[in-house]
Amino acid sequence: MNASSAWLFGTVAIEGADRFPHALRRLKEAFPGIDWRPGPVRGLPGVRLVAEPGLVEGAFKIALDEGPRVTVSGGRTSGVIYGVEELIRRGAGAAGRLALDRLPTEDAPGLPYRIWWTWDHSTNWELSQVGVQEIGVFNPYGKPPGGFLADYKRLVDFCSRNRIPAVTIFGFLRDSHGGIPAAQELCRYGAERGVRILPGIAIGAYGGVYWEGDHKYNLATWLKKNPQFSAKMEKGVGFQLADLDFPLNFPASDYTVRACPSAPETMEWMEEAVSWLAETFEIGGINIESGDYGVCGCDRCVARRANEAEAARRVDDHGDSWSHSDMAADFPRLYRAANAKRDDLWIVCEMQWDNLLDPVASEVQKKLPKGAIYQHTANRSFWQRLRTELTPEYVAGLPTEPNIFRCQFACQWNGDDRTERYFFNARTFADMAEVAAKVGFEGLTVWGEPSPYQATVELSYLASWADGRGRTASSPSPARSTPIATGPRSAASSSAPRRSPRRSAGPARPRGAG
Ligand SMILES: [Zn+2]
User: Fold this and answer.
1) From CA 292, how far away is CA 288, in angstroms rounded?
2) DSSP per residue over 119-146, as a string?
């Protein structure tokens, strides 16, 4: 190859753009001076986009052959997208030329499950809108109807570029922000960009599957027609957090109702709703919890649980406000219902907070299916215990697998009267990712509600996964390329900061990988 072959310029074929339209979109944005021609590369200069079944989700390889021809192979859509973003980072510098002298390269995620957690009402990425809120779980939506897509499309764009493969959304379905069509559009938007949309739902709580609106899978709507299935709450609605300096307030409303999970009709209705969710939307998974604002205390529920240790943890105001026994009984049914409709979902089971080291329901938790993703949440004080007391041996003995952490601090839910959403939380996120990798957890969920408009927030997001095996952030921005006179392989060995993937074989059992 001569010097000019270390670039792509002029007319460049791009193969696979029909399957990965967002990859073509990004290349056109980054290199508007190149005449991108979708179609077979054959012997022409070009880029080939290939889903490679042998790569784990999010992993990619960029190869360079004579032509010059670049092949971006990725594990699922996210792998192809991350590979193209890397190609852009390494090859950028001129609108009309894509430099190839920093290729080939490859990378693979350390922690496979890197998830953001959000509520619709307090996710603020389009900051010119009215109606911004910053905390709460039973909130009306205050923005204009288009606000949901305006916020979440920006969020998805960021995730796609920065290797965050999934976002949980509570309030996914709400009449006042576009209902079903808006939710469908967001799922398509995310899928094209390699970002899994995970609706957050609760079992007979938090609105069921349709958070707010006149819909048959909305909990308040259903309970008004079927009041006999309402829960008889064990105590008042809500929860309090010992790591938060002020009391939370949960005024009764349609948002706060709850169904009794011991009524067979409740679980039949939930199964039907989850099936509908999985077939109606191009979701990437579901985040399922049992509801964290109190449990049904009817005779049937108490007898079914038969777990005094678990009940004892609910007595204190700062104690548990859920039932692991309920979760173990009900989650497997919803897991099966969703998987019957789609075979590539990340189905997250929320294990609630601050109890990983104090199990009260291990026996029933053995019923929880392998292959779901078990999310253990920590507030700040409990995290200080976890990071020193949790060991690989303990994790290996858990009834659940795979396991991930969820951070409930470094956000609005812990601390004093100041919100911590905009703090520099990078060290916390990196610490959690490192501990996760050390003890055998396979992921981390952090809050993704504030936009990276604040530099502290942006840095926290970018550093979230930046240490240990949690690292997925891309290489440092390469220096601007200069044309080279040697072939691409020798160029790569001499100048490209090639990184060997830490876990080239990937995690043991990534859902939907390959
Ligand atoms: Zn009950």
Assistant:
1) 11
2) ESTT-B-STTSS----S-SSPPP-S-TT
Instruction: Note the pTM of the prediction, 2 decimals.
Output: 0.90
How far apart are alpha carbons 85 and 163 in whole angstroms? Answer: 10
Spatial contact of 499 and 464, defined as CB atoms under 8 Å apart = no
If one counts every other C-beta atom within 10 angstroms of the C-beta of residue 416, the result is 9
Q: Residue 173 C-alpha to ligand 1 middle, in angstroms? A: 26
CA 371 / ligand 1 centre spacing (Å): 28
Q: Report the separation in Å between the CA atom of 467 and the middle of ligand 1, taken as the mean of its atom positions.
A: 45
Nearest to 194 by CA among 381, 23, 315, 8: 23
Task: Domain 3-107: give its CATH architecture.
Answer: 2-Layer Sandwich (3.30)
CA distance 310 to 148: 38
Which spans in 352-478 are helix H? Answer: 362-365, 380-389, 392-396, 426-439, 455-463
Average confidence (pLDDT) per 10 residues, the chain, 514 residues:
70 98 98 97 93 96 94 98 97 94 92 96 98 97 98 98 96 98 98 98 97 98 98 95 94 97 98 98 98 97 97 95 97 98 97 96 95 97 98 97 97 95 95 95 97 96 61 37 27 32 34 33
Contact in structure between 197 and 190 (CB atoms under 8 Å): yes
**Given this model, what pLDDT does residue 471 score?**
46
> Domain limits of the chain?
3-107, 113-464
CA-closest candidate to residue 408, choices 117, 111, 165:
117
With both helix axes pointing from N to C terminus, report the angle between 147-161 and 179-192 in degrees, rounded to the nearest 10: 10
Per DSSP, 72 falls in state E
| Ligand 1 midpoint to CA 353 (Å) | 22
Compute, in angstroms, the gap from residue 198 CA to the centroid of ligand 1. Answer: 28
Query: In the CATH hierarchy, which fold is given to the domain comprising 113-464?
Result: TIM Barrel (3.20.20)
Whole-number Å distance, alpha carbon 233 to ligand 1 midpoint, is 8
